[in-house]
Design a protein that fits this description.
heterodimer, A: 394 residues, mainly beta, Monooxygenase, Neuraminidase, 2 domains, 4-stranded antiparallel sheet, 25 strands, 37% strand, B: 163 residues, mainly alpha, Potassium Channel Kv1.1, Chain A, 3-stranded mixed sheet, 53% helix, SKP1/BTB/POZ_sf (chain B), SKP1-like protein (chain B), Skp1_comp_dimer (chain B)
């Protein structure tokens, strides 16, 4: 057979599941070069019909998390990921008193947070993990003492092009109407965590005392909090409890708000078609009555995992590996067959994830990390409101 | 371009091994390459398709006729494509993806590329090399290194002797 033109090979490669890209790299040097090129990763992220989500499994079972890929033909491909402690042959998160969380995703990386509690001290370590190349790099560490570690908290991590590195923000919520606080750390640049001035109530879905909803965010390069984005008109006022079941996600590169406060009826997904334009909210409604009878539970027990390229909404059910794909147009739901390597009795959470097929610029990420002092405990008298952020479970 | 009359216009396509095929214009213009020729008025006689052999062209025409007979129902079209491609071997799929690219038929391109990707899913490195006609240009050391690096991706893949 004549050799394939490169553009046709790309058409095939973007349709390969994650794992097969690895096998294909072993075929010959030109395939390896093509697949290792950053432009292929960008092409895969933009055009692959396969939707990848990160699935965190229940912490109780100590099972490693998985990446799930939804192929257009309805196949579900699961790949276990086992992040190892850098330089050691031990897996992260298997020790006593420690729990591994997903703090976000970006640039083909999973931002993992390992929280370890020992007596009166809590340590949080941030790792960047590239599931394709199996690289794991520790990029930041936080030591917290009482009462700080008992507060609600959340991480936000993103790449900042201006500094060609990542910034990590940790928000804390002491509750009781105390002001919010946030501290920031630029990977490879900062030696210590810095306190962010005037974070205000800087959670993503923000509800003020009158129940008015808005969405706030942080400009990581300027380190300034932006004024709120107006929520959909129908959603302008919600109760405190309703806020607990309303969360932000990103579906198909669009900021989305998942409202699960209609417990017996429906899950409403609002997506902002044009970022920052509050008139561009559009709504997708999943009626619970469309779901298979044995999966019909209260709306707040579902996680909206992803929206597939064909518009189907994928929901997962709390404390189970049941997955269902809902076709809005036909008002029909189909169960996914969950692969055997995803263990029972775990909850699947998800966040959209585009893998990368080339290694991290480790030098940049590691630079200074090994030389830096032990981070000082962050003691603060003031602190924050809990935020439910993009890339987080809702 | 043919006038809108009651009788459907028929085009004659010629493969690179000189086989002639008649096909309804309405089906043939699924190919943007052919549609452009028709619109430019170069489709009066025989349309030569220098990059497609007779066997592949016959298949593509079967597809053109089949898919254009289905009304605008994406699900039915998808199931037709799945069925159409289900019994094709790798060589036929490879010829079809090249033909679809030359004829500029995006729906066939997408479907065949996806099918090839699906076929590759559990196949070994050796299988891929044989089917794509690729010479292994790694040195034994390089090959061992690249395979070690991606070892985890080999789980559940068929083995073969020269893998």
């Amino acid at each position: 057979m004549d050799s394939f033109p490169t553009d046709l090979l790309q058409e095939i490669f973007i349709r390969l599941p994650f794992k097969n890209v690895g096998i294909s790299k072993c075929v010959c040097t030109s395939w390896c070069d093509l697949l290792s090129d950053q432009s292929f990763t960008a092409n895969y992220a933009a055009n692959s019909p396969i939707t990848t989500v990160f699935a965190e499994q229940s912490v109780i079972t100590f099972n490693p998390p998985s990446l799930l890929q939804f192929a257009p033909n309805g196949d579900l491909i699961a790949t276990r990921i086992n992040p190892k402690i850098p330089g050691k042959n031990r897996y992260i998160g298997r020790e006593k008193n420690s729990t591994l969380y997903l703090a976000g995703t970006g640039n083909g990386l999973l931002f993992l947070m390992l929280r370890k509690a020992l007596l009166n001290l809590v340590t949080e370590k941030i790792y960047f993990f590239n599931p394709f190349c199996k690289e794991c790099v520790q990029v930041a560490e936080n030591s917290l003492v009482r009462p700080e570690w008992s507060y609600g908290y959340k991480y936000m991590i993103d790449y900042v092009p201006g500094i060609k590195s990542y910034k990590i923000v940790r928000f804390t919520d002491p509750g009781n109407e105390k002001p919010s606080q946030a501290k920031i750390f630029a990977v490879g640049i900062d030696q210590e965590w810095r306190i962010l001035d005037d974070p205000g109530f800087c959670h993503w879905v923000s509800v003020d005392n009158d129940g008015v909803v808005s969405i706030r965010t942080l400009d990581l390069s300027e380190e300034k909090f932006t004024p709120g984005i107006r929520s959909p008109r129908e959603l302008t006022r919600i109760s405190y409890y309703e806020n607990r079941v309303t969360g932000l996600r990103v579906f198909n590169d669009r900021l989305s708000l998942v409202d699960r406060s209609d417990f017996d009826e429906r899950i409403t997904i609002w997506t902002m078609d044009e970022y920052g334009i509050s008139d561009s909210w559009s709504k997708i409604v999943v009626q619970l009555s469309w779901l298979p009878f044995d999966m019909r539970k209260s709306a707040d027990l579902y996680h909206a995992l992803t929206i597939l390229p064909n518009g189907n909404v994928v929901l997962s059910l709390k404390d189970s590996v049941e997955l269902v794909s809902v076709c809005i147009e036909k008002k029909q739901a189909t169960k996914f067959r969950v692969p055997d390597n995803v263990t029972n009795r775990s909850t699947l959470y998800g966040t959209a994830f585009a893998p990368r097929f080339y290694p991290l610029d480790e030098d940049r990420v590691r630079r200074q990390w090994h030389n830096r002092k032990t981070p000082s405990a962050w003691l603060s008298t003031v602190s924050i409101a809990l935020s439910v952020g993009v890339g987080f479970v809702c | 371009m043919a006038a809108e009359t009651g009788t459907p216009t028929t085009l004659t396509l010629k493969s690179n091994d000189d086989e002639l095929f008649s096909v309804a214009e309405s089906a043939a213009i699924l190919s943007v390459t052919i549609r452009n020729m028709v619109e430019d008025g170069c489709a009066g006689g025989v349309i030569p398709l220098d990059n497609v052999d007779g066997k592949t062209l016959a298949s593509v025409i079967t597809y053109m006729n089949g898919i254009s007979a289905i009304p605008a129902d994406e699900e039915k079209k998808k199931s037709y494509r799945d069925k159409f491609l289900s019994d094709k071997d790798f060589e036929t799929l490879a010829d079809m993806v090249l033909a679809a690219n030359y004829l500029n038929m995006s729906c066939l391109m997408d479907a065949v590329s996806a099918k090839i990707a699906q076929v590759m899913e559990k196949k070994s490195v050796g299988w891929v090399r044989r089917k794509f006609g690729i010479e292994n240009d790694y040195t034994p050391e390089e090959e061992a290194a690249v395979k070690e690096e991606h070892k985890w991706t080999f789980e559940g893949v068929e083995t073969d002797d020269d893998n």
